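Researcher: Quick test of sequence recovery. Tokens follow.
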């Protein structure tokens, strides 16, 4: 039984080390994205363009297997739309960056409105204040990005993506450490029980 516990503990230690390495890589990439937000934003724009072109290919290929002519035509039209948008994003990543910034503005404004409404509706319940605060911050961020548009497009997407990567990396590191710290307690409880 102790060999089973030690094998489980070793597996958990390996998992926590993997989480620490992965989290560190994500956090470092996040910091780099925040240091070089314009390059990050352009890279994301090109990546989205590539994904749109891939989607175009899938739609056109699906047109061959679609049944009726109307379905085939619909798939070809969608493929054309995806393809044009993807090529625009790839050949003019600054335009793509402007578009991504506008999408971010829309996301933050809508998210803010929904969370504020949810927070107001949930008054008196635990966590309602945090939902209200989160919605207010999202709405404010969307408003600030809109007021600074288009000049904020140069840095906004890169910084937001970098913050997301950094926070995700730190979270993965903390979760990995938490699972590593719970191993001795869990093993001790099993050996006593």
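Model:
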């Amino acid at each position: 039984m102790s060999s089973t516990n030690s094998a489980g503990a070793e597996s958990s230690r390996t998992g926590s080390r993997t989480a620490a390495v992965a989290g560190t890589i994500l956090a470092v990439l996040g910091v780099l994205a925040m240091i070089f937000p314009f390059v990050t934003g352009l890279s994301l724009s090109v990546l989205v363009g590539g994904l749109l072109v891939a989607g175009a290919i899938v739609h056109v290929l699906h047109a061959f297997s679609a049944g009726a002519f109307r379905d085939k035509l619909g798939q070809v039209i969608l493929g054309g739309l995806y393809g044009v948008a993807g090529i625009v994003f790839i050949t003019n990543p600054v335009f793509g960056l402007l578009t991504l910034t506008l999408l971010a503005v829309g996301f933050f404004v809508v998210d803010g409105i929904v969370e504020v409404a949810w927070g107001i509706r949930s008054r008196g319940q635990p966590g309602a204040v945090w939902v209200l605060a989160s919605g207010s911050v999202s709405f404010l961020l969307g408003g600030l990005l809109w007021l600074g548009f288009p000049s904020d497009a140069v840095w906004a997407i890169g910084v937001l993506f970098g913050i997301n990567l950094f926070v995700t990396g730190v979270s993965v590191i903390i979760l990995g450490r938490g699972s590593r710290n719970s191993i001795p307690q869990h093993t001790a409880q099993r050996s006593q029980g």
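The first helix runs from residue 2 to 35.
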